[in-house]
Amino acid sequence: MKSSIKILGLLALLVTAAPFAATAADKADTKTEPAAKAKAKYTALYAQVESITPTLLTVKGTGPDLKFVINADTKISKDKAHKEAATVADVKPDQWIGGSYAKAADGSNVLHSLHLAVDQKGEPAKKKKKKE
């Protein structure tokens, strides 16, 4: 008799605690979602330059996503550490570039960052010559 009362008591405890456990798990999931969305905000870009103007970068390839809008917020860097600033004039046709972009509300690709010190995939990085 005592054991059946204990089992019923435990069962009642589990039934009342289950909704709270599910709510806590739901809250934990919502905390990680904004961080994941923030990371997914920009798409990586690795391509060869076809042409560039002060407001538009066009890369080689096929498909509709070949044009990228350059605006005042676009960060352009010369070195691999992304510390030395560059300008659109530093970008040359046929140069390999890296960076990131985001889709604007109007569907255009807005360039977030552009990195000029990028090696072509499959080629070894150039080594600096030692001074003697």
Description:
By secondary structure, the protein is an alpha+beta fold. It folds into 2 domains: 1-40; 43-115, OB fold (Dihydrolipoamide Acetyltransferase, E2P), CATH 2.40.50.320. The chain contains 1 helix and 6 strands; from the N terminus they run αββββββ. It has a 6-stranded mixed beta sheet with strand order 3-2-1-5-6-4, with no helix packed on it. A hairpin with a 5-residue loop joins strand 5 and strand 6 (109-115). The protein is elongated. The mean pLDDT is 79.
Q: Mean pLDDT across all residues, rounded?
A: 79
Q: Which architecture of the largest domain would the CATH scheme give at its second level?
A: Beta Barrel
Total domain modules? 2
**Roughly how many Å apart are the termini?**
93 Å
Order of helices and strands: HEEEEEE
Shape assignment: elongated
Oligomer: single chain
CATH class of the largest domain: Mainly Beta
Most strands sheet: 6 strands, mixed
CATH homologous superfamily assignment of the largest domain: Copper binding periplasmic protein CusF
Q: Got a strand count?
A: 6
Query: What integer value in Å does the Rg equal?
Result: 27 Å
Instruction: Determine the structural class based on helices, strands and strand pairing.
Output: alpha+beta
Number of helices: 1
Strand content bin: 25-35%
Measured as a percent range, the helix fraction is 25-40%
Biggest sheet: strand arrangement = 3-2-1-5-6-4
CATH topology of the largest domain: OB fold (Dihydrolipoamide Acetyltransferase, E2P)
The low-confidence runs, each spanning 5 or more residues with pLDDT under 50, are none
